[in-house]
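Re: that backbone. Tokens:
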């Protein structure tokens, strides 16, 4: 019978191998630079059961990414997961921090890593500043701002350990405007933008890119799902604005462009960017 030999590997060698592996992962991100190739990457997309989130998940899957579909709608997610290649359904309420923690843990256990986080889940709230219901505002605050923050806090250590990653926070064009009745939603989305750009500076040395996307009015059920203190006519529930609404697929393309380019801010249209820059043309 052949005798078994126990080989001793010095701790210094183990440390060297672990360090080398880390820098290989880090180099992978640096070679891709700010041009991330989403093929074979693992992405979390929140609000993935419909609208922009669903279109983003479908596009990422089509481009070869592994996608975690996150939403409160368990049955719908499971159905979609059967239709979208390389995807899993993870039920979570993005207004509840403990569910966000569970969701990230579940995705990590399933895929082993997280390369991309798309914080898309959210709901609108229209009200005059004088009439804002504080309890409703708290709910929107938890879902549209605290939820994305909690998700970021959960994935950042994972991305740092693996050598990098990308976080996309979906804001709104209304965050860049001062429109009557849009104060509650616009103020929270503006806060999300500031949080995103601040985190971008804080995490750049970790090869973690944080970007913010500003979609325009989109042909989804967002308007119908928006919370309103004052009822509005049925005709006003349809997306409308000074320019034709975008499709969810168009908005998804902008999000993926942000993942690939690593730009700090991605605007749905140049006129939105020009408005920010002080040029209304």
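Recovered sequence:
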């Amino acid at each position: 019978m052949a005798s078994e030999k126990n080989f001793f590997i010095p701790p210094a060698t183990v440390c060297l191998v672990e360090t080398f592996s880390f820098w290989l992962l880090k180099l992978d991100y640096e070679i891709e630079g700010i041009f991330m190739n989403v093929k074979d990457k693992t992405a979390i997309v929140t609000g993935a059961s419909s609208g922009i989130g669903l279109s983003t998940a479908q596009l990422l899957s089509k481009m070869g990414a592994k996608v975690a579909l996150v939403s409160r709608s368990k049955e719908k997610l499971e159905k979609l997961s059967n239709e979208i290649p390389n995807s899993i359904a993870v039920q979570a309420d993005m207004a509840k921090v403990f569910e966000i923690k569970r969701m990230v843990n579940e995705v990590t256990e399933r895929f082993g890593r997280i390369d991309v986080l798309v914080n898309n889940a959210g709901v609108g709230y229209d009200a005059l500043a004088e009439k804002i219901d504080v309890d409703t505002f708290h709910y929107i605050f938890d879902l549209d701002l605290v939820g994305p923050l909690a998700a970021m806090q959960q994935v950042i250590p994972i991305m740092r350990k693996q050598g990098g990653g990308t976080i996309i926070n979906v804001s709104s064009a209304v965050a860049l405007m001062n429109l009557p009745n849009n104060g509650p939603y616009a103020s929270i989305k503006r806060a999300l933008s500031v949080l995103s750009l601040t985190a971008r500076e804080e995490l750049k040395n970790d090869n973690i890119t944080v970007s913010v996307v500003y979609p325009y009015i989109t042909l989804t059920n967002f308007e119908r799902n928006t919370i309103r203190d004052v009822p509005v006519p049925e005709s006003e529930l349809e997306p409308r604005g000074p320019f034709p609404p975008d499709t969810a697929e168009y908005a998804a393309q902008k999000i993926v462009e942000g993942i690939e380019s690593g730009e700090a801010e991605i605007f749905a249209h140049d006129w939105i960017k020009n408005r920010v820059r002080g040029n209304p043309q």
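Residues 45-276 form a domain with the Rossmann fold fold (CATH 3.40.50.720). The CA atoms of residues 57 and 155 lie 18 Å apart.
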